Amino acid sequence: MYAQPLPDLLFEHITIRDGLSNNNVTAFGEDSYGFMWVGTANGLNRFDGYRFRHFYHSNTDSNSLVNNAVQTIHCDRKK
User: Fold this and answer.
1) Residue 37: beta bridge partners?
2) Distances (CA, A) of 56 to 18, 19, 42, 59, 66
3) Statement: residue 59 has pLDDT above 70
4) DSSP string across 4-53
5) Is the pTM of this model over 0.85?
6) What is the pLDDT of residues 33-42, one digit of tens each?
């Protein structure tokens, strides 16, 4: 038997230069819509394949993150 050749894989490192809120990534997930969610030491980032949207803690917004250090990402039943 011969092993099948592996396809050529291309990886790109995404950093703060590309729009990530912090280079220290602590969590990662993908939702059912195809958005990639990246938790960092400085907030939550949603990546649509082109650009990032950032989410941070705000003392004046009770719907914001509890703090900016995101440790885990979970998708709930409501997506």
Assistant:
1) 29, 46
2) 18, 14, 8, 10, 9
3) yes
4) PPPPP-------GGGT-S-S-EEEEEE-TTS-EEEEETTEEEEE-SS-EE
5) no
6) 999 999 999 9
